[in-house]
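Question (not urgent): is this output format expected?
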Amino acid sequence: MSTNGPNQTIGLTTISRTVASLAVGVVDTLERAMVGDGRMRTARGNAWEAVCADRARAEQRRELDRLVAELAAARDRVEVRQPQSVS
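Got this back:
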């Protein structure tokens, strides 16, 4: 699209890009005003939060596996002491 013509028309994509750009600018400005520059979410911060969440889930999974193993061992000990009769 040439910018030299006096009767240049603005395309739909140009309007969409302009609106999207303005919306991003407004959201960015609003976020900075609400939370401050020090608490702005960044890609690095988001990635670190994801790593921490993954580690927490892995720890919870290990704890659950440990508890299940304890319960299974306790059940096996009870079954060894008291054999069940077969009908």
